[in-house]
Design a protein that fits this description.
Layout (H helix, E strand, L loop, with lengths): L6 H15 L5 H11 L4 H25 L4 H21 L14 H9 L2 H11 L4 H20 L1 H41 L1
Helix pairs in contact: 1-6, 1-7, 1-8, 2-8, 3-5, 3-6, 3-7, 4-6, 4-8
Length: about 190
């Protein structure tokens, strides 16, 4: 079995997951959780989230096959979700948001804050485009970044301020919008051809 490591694929998958996980945009929720309960288990939450993402990368397609949905259809659906996430990020509106978690245990941080429905959909959608090994590297890179953000969320908020966080969200919103269009275009052609 040969490995197909590709820097461009790793970079693209990392940026997609970074934008969908949106840990920088979740800093206000993380800070309010830390204020309520005093401590967030950053390491444990990051590891559990990574395990969930990698597990879904491998068994997600089998789950789809079980209910009779092909990966291209799922990728098109994922493109729509990425599109709406990008619109939220760019326009600063909320189309859908889960309620703020009540405690800082693994459940609200690892799932659904980090490895939520949008993340899982994106992982399966990009699996139609990229090699699995590149997606795993992207998951690991995002997990490291998530861990660092969880560990230093107060410092990040002080340095960036609300304006800085807003700019980062908008920039990544535009990037994810472009990725959503590409994902839709490449998979809709395959769906129409079959």
């Amino acid at each position: 079995m040969s490995l197909h490591f590709n820097v461009r694929e790793i970079a693209s998958a990392t940026m997609i997951l970074f934008a969908v996980i949106d840990i920088v945009g979740s800093i206000p929720i993380i800070i309010s959780l830390r204020n309520k309960v005093g401590h967030i288990q950053s390491g444990k939450a990051s590891i559990v989230a990574a395990c969930l993402m990698v597990a879904f990368l491998f068994v997600g397609e089998e789950i789809l096959n079980l209910i009779g949905i092909d990966i291209n259809s799922f990728a098109v659906a994922g493109a729509f979700i990425l599109f709406f996430l990008a619109i939220e990020m760019i326009l600063g509106i909320t189309l859908y948001k889960d309620d703020e978690p009540k405690s800082a245990s693994i459940v609200p941080i690892a799932f659904p804050l980090i490895a939520g429905a949008g993340t899982m959909t994106s992982i399966l959608s990009i699996r139609a485009e990229f090699y699995v090994e590149n997606i795993i590297v992207a998951i690991i890179l995002n997990t490291i970044f998530v861990y660092l953000v969880l560990k230093s969320s107060k410092k990040i908020e002080r340095v960036l301020g609300k304006g800085g966080l807003s700019i980062i969200r908008k920039v990544f919103g535009v990037i994810i919008l472009a990725i959503a269009v590409k994902l839709f275009a490449s998979n809709i052609n395959q769906l129409l051809a079959s």
